[in-house]
Amino acid sequence: MGLAFAMTAPSTAAPAKAAALDVRALYDAHAPFVARVLQRLTGPGPHVDELLQETFVTAWKRASSFEGRSTARTWLYGIAANIARHHRRGLARFSLFRGKLERETAIAAAPPAPDEEIRRSQDAARVHAALAELPFKQREAFVLYEIEGMPGEEIAAMLEVPVGTVWRRLHDARESFKAQMKRGEKA
Amino acid sequence: MSEKDLPRLIDDPELGSALRAARDEAMSPERLAANARGLDATIGQLPPPGNLPLGASALTLGAVAAVVVIARLIAGPAIFGDETVPAMTPPPAETTAVALATSDRPESTPAIATATPLSTLQPAPSSSGTFTRLMTPATTRVPTPTPVMGGTLADELRLYDEARAFVRRGEHAAALASLDELARRFPKSSLAPEAAITRAEVLVAAGRLDEASSLLSRLVSEPAHAGRRAELLRTLGDVERARGNCTAARTHYRASLDAGAAGEEASAVRRGLGACEAD
Question: Which of A47, A143, B110, B219 could covalently link to A87 via disulfide, CB atoms 3.0 to 4.6 Å apart?
Answer without folding.
Answer: B110
